Amino acid sequence: MSAETPAPSAVASPGPVWPQIQQVNPADLAHLDTYTLSDNARRIHIVVPQLTGHKHLNDHLQQWANRHQEDFLQPPTGHTGEEEVRARQTPSLTATWAITGISPTMIGFYLESTENPRGYTTTDRNLLWYNPTDGKIVSTNELLTDTAKAQLPGRVAKALTEQKVNFEEGRLVSSLEDGSPAIGFTARGELYIGFDSYSLATGYIGAPSVAIEIPDESWLTDAGKAARSASLTPDSAKVPTAPVTSELELAKRGEGPMVDCRKEKCVALTFDDGPSSHNTPKLLDTLAKQQVPATFFVLGTQVKAFPEIVARATEEGHEIGSHSWRHANLTALSGKALKKDLADANKAIKTVTGAAPTLLRPPYGAFNSDVAKAAKNADLALVMWDVDTLDWEHRKVKKTVEHGQEATDGSIVLMHDIHETTIKAVPKLIKELREEGFTFVTVSELLGETKPGKSYFRAPHHD
Ligand code: NI
After folding, report:
1. Phi-psi region for residue 55, left (φ > 0), alpha (ψ -120 to 50) or beta?
2. Do strands 93-103 and 106-115 pair parallel, antiparallel, or not at all (unpaired)?
3. Sorting pLDDT into bands at 50, 70 and 90, what band is 41?
4. Number of neighbours of residue 443 by Cβ within 10 angstroms
5. Euclidean distance between CA atoms 316 and 339, whole angstroms
6. Could you tell me which residues are beta bridge partners of residue 47?
7. Which candidate, 103, 102, 74, 98, places its Cα nearest to that of 88?
8. Distance of alpha carbon 262 from alpha carbon 244, whole angstroms
9. DSSP-assigned beta bridge partners for residue 49
10. Alpha carbon 28 to its chain's center
């Protein structure tokens, strides 16, 4: 709760004394780090906070810093680059930060950049609320209920008038609607709203901020309540060192590297021969409920018949590989027919998912050097398996689970989503493997970068 350093805006903006956002002690936040862009020749110094282990957050904060630097260096229209460099000798760009709240589910990062291009100081404020438990950025619009949003323009207008700010009403309303002001809380628990320069008026009126008394709880959403309590009673004891995000959510966000299979015990569940109109949607329901990503090796003919199921699987974070066009034994096809088969399957998949597959599981696991060469030409790595559930043969739930449990760290497990018994076995298998400490990943997450034409049976063991 200490405020050892003055609020950035108190230093940067001359004129009226604007309300300040709460600042909590950043030293309380373990794993805090900073990212700095510094260019003394151009008078740029930007610092943003970073939180070790929270990649998604750190990327966001770095993007904010990079964007401000780029905008600053962008020559305004009518200037040539040379003139602009000269014109930029005096101007400067400084960005600094403060922590406005800390709790296991909400951390508030206040960012403020000040620039003086033509003698004026312009301020850009940002409040980045972050849930360190699920790894999601919370937009300022999510803090307030509709009740609050309906009353806010009137309240803010009143507060600005009291501060003798010459604002334009239309600009105020649209600024609040698009969620661009920094929204947090003052040390007294009022709602803090900080505007950017020129966001409320065409002319220069500084960068106003207001403090609005919150009438009752009906103004704040759950996220808003969490942000307020993180501001007023900061609690840094149980902030997770990395977000506890489900594997499926990570796969969906394309943040695979956050699951490091060199360190974690990973397994990839794979399903061949689908999609099946009846069984695959049930499997997708299970995977969504369990938040487990999987890899589907689909047949081109099935994709063409049930495109919406493949689209759903992609949408929900699963990986789609090719199982050929029509399940032919690829080793028996002529060169030309082989080439066409793989191309047709790739095309069918790309049409639905938007991306050509990078993985091929040859039907029956049958391949030779011709198949490998054709796969290489079609940009496909060959993906086999090291754990075979034999689900297609015995069609027994219990046996499917038992075989699946033979998985070791780095295993690729073979199943078929065309069999009802397999669909029934999956929740039990997930439960067993979770208890053994496995993390579920897609094949591409498991193997990392794959080489077209090369065959893979599993990921290497690690210590
Ligand atoms: Ni098959």
Report:
1. alpha
2. antiparallel
3. confident
4. 25
5. 30
6. 36
7. 74
8. 18
9. 34
10. 26
φ, ψ for residue 170, nearest 5 deg: -60, -40
Q: What are 112's two structure tokens? A: 């403020």
Q: Where are the alpha helices (DSSP H) in 184-295?
A: 222-232, 247-252, 279-290
At 147, the amino acid letter reads T
Centre of ligand 1 from the C-alpha of residue 432, in Å: 25
CA of 378 to the centre of ligand 1 (A): 19
What are 234-291's pLDDT values in tens digits? 998 888 888 776 667 766 666 544 567 877 899 999 999 999 999 999 999 999 999 8
What is the whole-number distance in angstroms between the Cα of residue 392 and the centre of ligand 1? Answer: 9
- Cα–Cα distance between 87 and 115 in angstroms, integer? 14
Tell me if 431 sits within 8 A of 404, measured CB to CB. Answer: no
Tokens representing residue 11 in the block: 């230093």
- Beta-strand ranges (E) seen in 91-208 are 93-103, 106-115, 122-131, 136-138, 182-185, 191-194
Active site residue 416: yes
For tokens 């699920």, the residue is 134
Dist. CA 363 → ligand 1 center (Å):
5
The answer to whether 311 and 352 are in contact (CB under 8 A) is yes
Amino acid at 237: A
Sole residue written with tokens 């704040």: 220
Q: Tell me how far the alpha carbon of residue 296 lies from the centroid of ligand 1, in angstroms.
A: 11
Q: Of the residues 68, 323, 403, 416, which is catalytic?
A: 416
Nearest to 368 by CA among 421, 331, 419: 331
Residue 15 pLDDT class (50, 70, 90 cuts):
low
How many angstroms separate the alpha carbon of residue 285 from the centre of ligand 1? 22
Match 């334009």 to its residue by tokens: 168
List the structure tokens of 130: 């972050």
**Which candidate in 272, 273, 341, 391 is catalytic?**
272
